[in-house]
Specification:
It contains three helices and three strands. It has 90 residues and is α+β, with helices and mostly antiparallel strands. The protein has helices at 12-17, 26-38, 45-59; strands spanning 2-8, 64-70, 82-87. The protein is 38% helix and 22% strand. Strands 1-2-3 form a three-stranded antiparallel beta sheet, with helices on one face. Helix 2 runs antiparallel to helix 3. The radius of gyration is 14 Å and the shape is elongated. The chain has a single domain, classed as 2-Layer Sandwich (GTP Cyclohydrolase I, domain 2).
Length: 90
Amino acid sequence: MIIDVEIFHNLREAGITDNIRKTVNYSELTRRITKLVSGSESRLLENIAQNIASLLLKESNATKVIVRVRKKRYSRNPLAGIEITRLRHG
């Protein structure tokens, strides 16, 4: 499975201060996504993408996430998979 995520987050303070605590902890989110997917019994790419989007919105200060998921065996050109966009509400 190939997973690609985009995380929309206000990174202004991190860019100004060069403080790692003000940005997204990419290695931690990657670890959590890997754990989520490896323990999943989901049959649909859509369900996997939704679970990843929910995790990212819950575990980070992201305002928006885009999640793309495709199966490796379908990853040749043309690429086949799904993409979802989710926003933080509230």
